Amino acid sequence: MMIVLFPASLPDRPRARRWPRMLKAAALAGAGLAGLCGSTAYAATATTSVSVTATVQATCLISSTSLAFGVYTGVQLDSTSTLTVTCTNTTPYNVGINAGTAPAATVTTRKMTGPTAGVLSYALFQDTGRTINWGTTVSTDTTAGTGSGVAQPLTVYGRIAASQFVAPGAYTDTVTATITF
Fold it and tell me: Whole-model pTM above 0.70?
């Protein structure tokens, strides 16, 4: 520890000039003592590796928009719907669409039910020309693809054939699209 004494007065110098020099001298003396008395701290370190792992399971999601034909007047009526498939990258998949809920419906002759037990036949296809039926048998009438890790749209092409003169009213059906991966 260092003690600095400041004289009350110095006979040959004015007070205003001596205090800054005395403070500077005291600061330098204190810094020097700190260097002599202080100790240097050293930090030690150690490292290790952390193993990080995950297993990605093949996964697919599927969603759809409604297939709304609108008003049918006895002439052929076409409409579309979109199935959105999102599968993990490189995952192969097949998408099939069942026959629906109407009695006696098949994947080649689907039916909407309406008033007085009436049925309105329709079909679902994989192509714009509406020639490739969309069914449920993998590698026969389903749509195949490979996941990319992002959403992939698949268009469902629907058609109500002409000359079906059924009772007026609302007709509905629900089909289920299934993705196999």
Answer: yes
Domains and CATH numbers, the chain: 60-180 (2.60.40.1090)
User: What pLDDT digit, counting tens, does each position of 3-41 carry?
Assistant: 544 455 545 555 555 555 655 655 555 555 455 555 677
CB–CB of 102/111 below 8 Å? yes
- What is the DSSP code string of 58-81? P-EEEEE---------SS-EEEEE
Closest CA relative to residue 120, chosen from 176, 73, 166: 166
Give 109's contacts (C-beta < 8 A, 6+ positions apart): 121, 123
For 94-107, what is each residue's pLDDT tens digit? 999 999 999 999 99
Among residues 141, 138, 111, the alpha carbon closest in space to that of 126 is found at 141
Listing DSSP states for 123-155 in one string gives EEESSTTS-SB--SSTTTTSEEEE--SS-EEEE
Cβ neighbors of 131 (< 8 A, separation 6 or more) are 125
pLDDT digits (tens, 9 = 90+) for 114-157: 999 899 999 999 999 999 999 999 999 999 999 999 999 999 99
Q: In which residue are the tokens 């080649």 written?
A: 108
